[in-house]
Amino acid sequence: MSKPDVDAFRETLLALRARMRGDLSHLTDEALGANGAKTGAASRAPVDMADVATDNFEQEFTLSLMQNQEHVLAEIADALERIRLDSFGRCEECEKPIPKARLQALPYTRHCVACARKVQQSS
Fold this sequence. Notes:
The chain is mainly α. It contains 4 helices and no strands. 10% of the residues are buried.
């Protein structure tokens, strides 16, 4: 892969990382109820069990999204490290070049499509 291509992927990864960190920060605030939207124990209003269940579901869903974001951020960090080590764009399984179209769609990918299928089936 040419240096300009690698530089372009580095910039893409850095921009994606910045966006994901912002999203993660927003999700953290939402999960922790930083918006002040949640009613606390100090409220004298009667507690509706349906509202409590909805709040719990939304918090669990948000925590799941946060976990996914953290995973993607780790993958981005690994991809940036592969760029630093000059191994970016090569499949970690077969060591063949990963097609540019795949990297454009998923710039932090570790595997070509065939090896990704194998890895996914084995897990």
